[in-house]
Amino acid sequence: MNRDDFEKFVIQNYDASFDYPWKKSPRNEVFRHKDSKKWFALVMNVQKKWLGSDEDGMVDVVNLKCDKELVGSLQKEHGIFKAYHMNKENWVTVDLDGGVSDEKLKSLVRMSYDLTSGK
Questions:
Q1: N or C end: fewer C-beta atoms under 10 angstroms in the chain?
Q2: Which Pfam family is an annotated match for this chain, by its short name (predicted)?
């Protein structure tokens, strides 16, 4: 699932809004619960080396909140990294350039949405 597909999926399946809160990073997009305005996803375009890669170039990623007990095991999976620019105990960064299956990404979005719902 690429960045455009991710955005469509979230808008079609969740009661969410999105915005671009940083003028210096106009492509960074935050998905929020419509009622509480809490973030559940942060989409960014980052340098691969910021995620620990030896490769040059940029990659689209999404930060998602997840169960603390799953963070360590998720980071062992291809395309899932320690959270970039978020709390590394509660969030993971997921490659949106095909590194993670659509089903896995959808389940992680659901978990993030649920964990940030405040209910």
A1: C
A2: YjbR
- Report the alpha-carbon distance of residue 40 to residue 58 in Å, rounded: 23
Question: Is residue 66 within 8 Å of residue 44, measured between CB atoms?
Answer: no
SS3 content of the chain, % helix, strand, coil (to 5): 30, 30, 40
87 falls in which pLDDT band (50, 70, 90)?
A: confident
Cα atoms found within 13 Å of the Cα of residue 35, Cβ hemisphere only: 7
CA distances to 26, 31, 60 from 38, in Å: 20, 8, 22
SS3 35: coil
CA dist., res. 1 & res. 24, Å (int): 26
Q: What is the pLDDT of residues 88-115, one digit of tens each?
A: 889 999 999 877 999 999 999 999 999 9
Partners of 32 in the beta sheet?
17, 39
